[in-house]
Amino acid sequence: xENIKNDTKLIAYCGLYCGACRLYISGKCPGCADNAKATWCxxxxxxxENNYQSCADCKQxxxxxxxxxxxxxxxxxxGLIFRSDRAACIAKIKQDGPTAFAAFMSSNGWxxxxxx
Length: 116
Fold this sequence. Notes:
Radius of gyration: 13 Å
Shape: globular
Oligomer: single chain
Number of domains: 1
Strand content: under 5%
Helix content: 25-40%
Largest sheet: none
Number of helices: 5
Structural class: mainly alpha
Order of helices and strands: HHHHH
């Protein structure tokens, strides 16, 4: 893909990687962290309120799938349609750290780790 940046600031609060998103690359979206219009996103609001870089920093839920904000109906539909596995993204951030995660996602051109 073209213009995919390796930048930890492009990791969405839910674990998606905005740097590989077509809307971000085309300039139509500022990315999760800078999207002031995304007040509807409960995950984003929770992470901002708790000063988390992403759900990987959450102290309340070791597994993000136990969190109703992370694992809700809309996210299940999104995951099914796009074969997106945000929980795997959060696990990879926890395991390798945000710097390695951003490098991994940008080098593969992935917005999300795919469901198997």
